[in-house]
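Please predict the structure of the following assembly.
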Amino acid sequence: MSEPGSLEREIAYFKSKRAEWLQHYTGQYALVMGEALTGTFTSFSEAYSVGVDRFGSDQFLVRQIVEHDAEQSLPALFVGALFASSL
Amino acid sequence: MPVRYNYFYHSNPPAQVTLDPNGLLVFGALLPVEIHVPPQLAQSLGQANQPIPQPQSGLSLIDTGCTFTSVHEPLLIALGLHPINVVQSGTANGPVDQNVYAVRLNFPTLGWDVGLLEVTGSNLAGQTTPASHGQAPQLLVALIGRNLLAACSFHWDGSAGFWSISW
């Protein structure tokens, strides 16, 4: 089992298998625990539900199998302009 | 499809109420929110006779600049949640990793419950609403991003001073 708060092992495994999985499971959601693929699912909800059924509150990875991973954008927060005002 | 209207208004005696577009400009689209563990996890904890963490609540701001909805990370940790993924986020100082969590969100003033959503954990410490229009600053606990708005129709009428959301 991974150390709580870290998904390094699962993510490294995912990345090592991505090219192979893209050939068969593009767009699906991979459920990974440690260095094992539990399954692939057509929705995030399904993958998460199976993860909780199998692993309870232990840590697992759910990531969509796509060529480029999703990215977060939080421009207002990161430039400190959520509630900008003149001085 | 329920539609909820939200607005700021002036209240001028005797009982004359007019919309206040400036209030909307100053505060933006604010919504009280409750952050819960997802129902799947609550059920699993219940079956294991473990306590289900109480929801965390506060104020959220709709931010169409956010890809993912983002929640103050200490609240997610207080719910006993573990990250289920990591995403990269661009900042002025280069890319940083942000943990992704699965949560249930409830918007009590809308009567809207989002059973399962991916959110990123962020540091929103010190992010408050402005002290303006007679309102004391309130802490923000979440930024509502486009992954939630993807399930909605969101309409902003800045000139009239109201916004609406339907889902």
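The longest strand of chain A covers residues 36-41. Chain A touches chain B at residues 4-5, 7, 11, 44-45, 48-49, 51-53, 56-63, 69-79, 82-83, 85 (CB under 8 Å).
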